[in-house]
Amino acid sequence: MKHKIIIHIGAHKTGTTSIQMKLDKDRELLHTRGVYYPKSNFQLHGQHKLAFAMKNPKDEANLTDCLKALTQELNSLNEGMLVVLSSEEFFTAPLESIRQLKQSLNPFDVHILAFVRRQDNQFVSFYNERAKGLRNNFTQPAQRFLKNPILLSDELDYLHFLNQWASVFGAKKLKVQQYESYSNVVAGFFEAIGRKGCYIEDGSGTNRKNISVNLEVLEILRLVKQLTHDVAVRKKILVDAKTFFVNGTPAQKLITSEQRVAILDFFKDSNEKLFKKYFHQSNQYSSDHIVAEEDAVKLKPADIVNFMLSYVKADSIDD
């Protein structure tokens, strides 16, 4: 009996790291239950080395080596294993690389699993992730991306990337899940791969939260990154700002309910096709789901100024 392979492709911000940490931690136990999590191309709890090789088709030799290592490992297994590959970087892999992956895995029964998340919430997460990054020079305000959210991240167009995978493996081989459907996405993952009984709640690697930075801190970082490229200075200011604004405005208040509506309306046609093709139901990501309590809170410039003044005073005292 040939192996069944499930490629978990993300998307980002849908509990992927929690899922990968659980698969990694329980690797040996899962193996005894017929679920195998490969060691080849392994990096930071997932098959990220392979995924990044797929996203860099110019380095064809690297991708060839990664695929060779994977197939050698698969061929060494006892028959009938359920093999799981996981990396959120797979989601946006180029079409030609997906074709190469398919060709390498032709002897096996391959299925694709993806989780998607409502785009207005995903927009907030993507913006927070980029804005808080200390090693990039991303300083644009969120409002700059509202008319065309894809400028923030093209991954928000779920239909486009899922269709790429479907065009290679076949739509019937894709299983797409809503992130919002699960209070515990790790348990939901094991249910989605047909191994609900393999999930063991132990509190490690489950329900991991990406730490969002509150809005006051984001705004300070946005300003500081325009003034200095020194990562050490940026990091020091980040730590101090997080302490100063420990009770600051939550990241989810980044955009207003009207702006959330605009984001979902931007993806309306795409989402309708997405839900019809992959969920066989009406669009669950329509702007009708926006509620009033999600309204944004305007930052008070005085709060930012007060931090800057206190920071300058403290720095001068240290000197």
| Overall number of strands | 5
Beta-strand content bin: 5-15%
Mean pLDDT: 91
Strand order across the largest sheet: 2-3-1-4-5
| DSSP helix fraction | 40-55%
CATH topology call of the largest domain: Rossmann fold
Low-pLDDT regions: none
| Total individual domains | 2
Protein name: Sulfotransferase domain-containing protein
Organism: Methylovulum psychrotolerans
Short description:
This protein folds into 2 domains: 4-124 and 153-198, 3-Layer(aba) Sandwich (Rossmann fold); 215-318, no CATH class. It contains 13 helices and 5 strands.
Describe this structure in words.
The protein has helices at 16-25, 27-32, 48-54, 60-75, 95-104, 119-131, 158-169, 185-192, 215-227, 231-244, 257-266, 268-278, 301-318; strands spanning 4-8, 35-36, 82-86, 109-116, 174-178. With 319 residues, it is of the alpha/beta class. The protein folds into two domains: 4-124 and 153-198, Rossmann fold, CATH 3.40.50; 215-318, no CATH class. The chain has a five-stranded parallel beta sheet with strand order 2-3-1-4-5, sandwiched between helices.
Question: Layout of SSEs?
Answer:
Blueprint: E1 4-8, H1 16-25, H2 27-32, E2 35-36, H3 48-54, H4 60-75, E3 82-86, H5 95-104, E4 109-116, H6 119-131, H7 158-169, E5 174-178, H8 185-192, H9 215-227, H10 231-244, H11 257-266, H12 268-278, H13 301-318
Parallel strand pairs: 1-3, 1-4, 2-3, 4-5
Helix pairs in contact: 3-4, 5-7, 6-11, 9-10
Annotation keywords:
5 strands; single chain; 319 residues; 5-stranded parallel sheet; Rossmann fold; 13 helices; alpha/beta; 46% helix; 2 domains
